[in-house]
Amino acid sequence: MAFTGYNETWRLSRRIFHQTFRPDSALKFRPMHIRRAHEMILNLLDEPQQYNSHFATFSSSVAMSAVYDYESSARDDPLVRVVADALDIGLAMMTPEKAMSTDWCPGSSIKRDAQVSTNRTNEMMDVPFRYAKQRVVDNFIESRSSMVAENLRRMEKEDEAFKPMFETALKRAATTAFAGAYETTTSTLMVFVLAMVLHPDVQKRAQAEIDLVIGRDRLPTFDDRTSLPYIDAIFRETLRWESIVPLGVPHATTSDDVFDGYLIPKGTTAACNLWGIARDERRYPDASRFIPERFIQDDGTLTDDDPARYIFGFGRRICPGRHTADASVWSAIATMLASLDISPAKDEQGKVIDFTPEFTAGLTRHPKVFPCSFSPRSHVHSELLDELRTAI
Ligand code: HEM
Description:
Main location: membrane
Membrane topology: Single-pass membrane protein
Largest sheet: 2 strands, antiparallel
Bound molecules: protoporphyrin IX containing FE
Pathway: Secondary metabolite biosynthesis
Strand content: 5-15%
């Protein structure tokens, strides 16, 4: 869907998408976001070295639930594997150097990779969709909501002739929703943890805010959000500091246009430099530094500058998952800050392991795995963790 031109199929997929992920509709997923964030904390404490895979599990389980009403297992879920494998191959092909390469270049593997990617993508579209459809047929989920279930019920009221087109659009929109959510949410959490490892002072201030506002006996919920402005400032700075979709998704002009005296012919590829906006020194002095305080006013409230207004793109093709992204990333970072200390990893002699952050390249980017450590905060005792385990 994200790479489809502006046409009827796109419009239908976008409409389907919007019905589930518009702000008021996305609210119903909030309890699930919090529950999955708690599960992520337990995973991080059980296996801290695998933190990137726990972020991927969080992102995929949130998406699987919202899109297919599929309750994935805490680790190594088979259906999540089908989808994640397809995405790994597909996204690895979308790098600038691959885009420059042509299949006649000696050694180019682009055709072969494309074939494998197509097969995996078809599997990724079909397998979870069949699962969700079967559940609707079995009448399992009258009371439960998911993008596929809601729309299959809606489809029942449509004309027979329209149903095949609707089902194809739904399948596409569902796959795109999962793909759009999985990589971006995981990448944003990687950026957040990198920032916490490099800026312990920021983490301390955030934890002090949480302790003061909600105490130490429970974990944050969405009801606390407006009372935790510094957590939101960290969230904004995370989106801004290392933009994970630096050039947005490329588009093309549908007709000739003239801008600033330049003719832009029909069909020209146009990319929006989101990275450039986020790193503009006039708007963000010392832009390469992680400074959440830039979003806090003297009276402690948030400023009007929210990077979410540009980091998700613009206009007709603006990211339709932005409200869900906002809820899932907020729940994950607020829960992590309340319950964990995130710090640089140490070697066997207790010396901090130095590292230089490195990033992947491509349509989306994220920090490569770096050494870091997760431990429970001093008040997070085993009873609280047991409570979380039972609640999940
Ligand atoms: C922090 C997380 C995310 C970021 C930074 C992000 C960013 C973006 C950007 C920059 C675009 C291109 C917009 C444009 O062309 O102007 C986009 C498109 C899209 N995103 Fe996201 N996104 C995020 C999370 C999500 C989530 C959670 C979902 C699904 C629930 C999602 C689904 C999509 C879809 C379907 C499109 C294509 C829309 C279209 O072409 O009509 N994204 N996203």
